[in-house]
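Table 4 source record.
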Amino acid sequence: QVQLVESGGGSVQAGGSLRLSCAASELFDSSQCMGWFRQAPGKGRERVGVIVTRVGEPYYVSSVKGRFTISRDTAKKTLYLQMNSLKPEDTAVYYCAARSSVGSCLEESAYDFWGQGTQVTVSS
């Protein structure tokens, strides 16, 4: 079964760090794009950062630039999101997603595989 499995969420104080992992199995080789999205309580889903799965530089939303870093381990077929200098406004459920079709990695509606989500809570 094709799936994305996230891990690494938790609770931290402001200024702390967390690293999220997304085990992608066969999607890592077959997807065009992978990325991280988040949804805070009462808000819509937001793109955090996306990347062409096997090559290229990540694109980040401006609110996380300089604090969050997407990386990948091709041997482990895993995508990571390193989050530093966390703020209370980063509190959300974070989702890993993959787009199987060719196209822009910025087109959120085109992502057709989603993980179950992992909760990140940042306290002040």
